[in-house]
Design goal:
The protein is mostly helical. The chain has five helices and no strands. 68% of the residues lie in helices and 0% in strands.
Length: 158
């Protein structure tokens, strides 16, 4: 259980960092912020606010939530959504780097290639850690359940 809790807390920290990157970026003046996202058709500024807010909410649920199953489920849902978004970018032939960290990478002088690797690493961690945690929780639940005793009819042929 300690590893699952470590996963949820470390994922929450990663999500807070990416949420902060998006929210700070959305306040800038970079021209990409006025560009329409190729998947949803809304400005990247709006998308950064929405996704950054969702990331922050999931992170808060992971820090202060009481149900580990819900925390892991939220992380898997969010990571799967990110993966589907990235697949969508490929399907629409989006030729630019994923703006997943917003414009903060430029402010911090992080190359687009490095930013892509960071985002891919975070996504991989969220996905594999989430599904590994889910499997562990399912296995643990199965071990904790008591077997149901067979019913005895008590009727005798006579």
């Amino acid at each position: 259980m300690k590893l699952v809790k470590f996963y949820t807390c470390s994922s929450a920290l990663l999500l807070l960092a990416t949420a902060l990157a998006k929210l700070v970026s959305s306040m800038g003046a970079d021209k990409i912020l006025q560009t329409a996202d190729p998947i949803f058709g809304i400005h990247f500024r709006t998308l950064f606010w929405l996704v950054g807010g969702v990331e922050a909410l999931v992170a808060l649920a992971c820090f202060w939530g009481k149900r580990i199953e819900l925390q892991v489920g939220l992380l898997i849902w969010l990571a799967t959504s990110f993966l589907l978004y990235r697949v969508g970018l490929i399907l629409v032939h989006y030729q630019h780097p994923c703006p997943c960290l917003g414009t903060l990478t430029g402010m911090l002088h992080i190359s687009e290639n490095t930013a892509q690797r960071i985002v891919e690493g975070v996504l991989t961690y969220l996905l594999f850690g989430g599904f590994a945690s889910l499997l562990w929780l399912i296995n643990r639940r199965g071990q904790n359940e008591m077997p149901v005793p067979a019913l005895k009819t008590g009727a005798k042929a006579g």
